[in-house]
Structures are given as C-alpha cells and as structure tokens.
Amino acid sequence: MMMPGMMPGGPAGAAAGGPPAAPADDGKNRDLSDKIDKSQCYARNESSQYPWTNLLIGDTRLGCKSDADEQLILHVEFHEFVKVHSIKFTEFNSGRDPSEAPTLVKLYVNRCNMGFEDVEDVDPTQVLELTAADLKEDADPIKLQFVKFQRVRSITFFVEENDGGDVSAMGGLKLIGRTVATTNMKDFKKQG
C-alpha cells in the first residue's frame, strides 16, 4: 500500500529528481564524527606535533598531546544540534606511557571560546574520572548524564589532570549519539 505523497521507488522529491530525503532519525545512537564542524573546533595548549585533529583519524599512535603541561582544552563544535549519549576516549599509542593518560576531564556543553581562565569560573556540565581501563580500545564508551546532553551544539573538554605525566595524551575521541530533529525556518513560506 502506498502512502499519500509517495511515488514508486521512494519519497516524491527523490523520485521527481529532487534532492534525496535526509535519513530519518531511527532512534539509534551512532558515531557523530561526520557531524563535527572541524572549522569551528579548537584546542588550547596542544602540541603542534600531535594536534587535536589526530583524535578523529582512528590511529592511536598519532593522537593528541598537550604542550606545556598536563592541561588541555578541546572544543568540538557540531554542524547541527545533537544528543550525545556517550563518549569514547582511547589511550595514546596503546598505553605505552600510562602517566600521560587523562584522569580528570570536565565537560562543558554549549560554551564557546573557553580558555584556562574560564574553567575555574564556570561549573562543568559533567565531570569524568577516568581509569586506565576506561581508555582501553575495547572498553565500552562512557555514558553521559543524558538529560544534560539533549541539545548540544558544542562540547568543550578540559583535561585537568593526568596520571602524573608532564603532558597529557589521548589516542582517540568518539562522540556517540544522534541528531536532533529541527525545523528549518527557511522552508516556511509567508502566507498572503
């Protein structure tokens, strides 16, 4: 049985040569890497040899390291609002230097242009205390306080402490969740 507005082979727009319809939100969580707006992301105190963009590559030998000390700020911005369910941190270089692994990470939702002077003045959305087991490649993602991550446009990560190393290092970062259904106001037409 065909639904009104449907044509054989799919939605009317797609069958009529229009743009393909966006996939519907199936309610399943997935990797949000393709929703990250890399041009709006930044890091503070990152090593030039190990920049934040390495976290998205999938090779933990490249990863991201802090520069002058153990503290590191990573700001991740999305193209659209998302619901973030969990986060997967992966250890740097298979954990060859466990003292560089982050142990205390503070998360700030929808806070832009944060620097080290701001992290003391603003309450974090959530604080994560990480163990070596949390950072293993086969470890489960860390579930977030989902109610606080329902309409996220950006997340700022503040790596405050590590396991005693001079610098902090992460091998990978994955954000798991789904997009938020929104209305594009440009699609509305003025009624006469």
Automatic annotation (TrEMBL):
Q: Name the keywords, alphabetized.
A: Disulfide bond
Biased composition (Gly residues) is annotated at: 7-16
Annotated region (Disordered) at: 1-33
Q: What is this protein called?
A: PITH domain-containing protein
Disulfide bond found in the keyword field: yes
Give the InterPro entries listed for this entry.
Answer: Galactose-bd-like_sf (IPR008979), PITH_dom (IPR010400), PITH_dom_sf (IPR037047)
Native species of this protein?
Minutocellus polymorphus
Among the entry's GO cellular component annotations, what is one? cytoplasm
Q: Start and end of every PITH domain? A: 21-192
Pfam families linked: PITH
Respond yes or no to whether keyword Magnesium is given for this record.
Answer: no
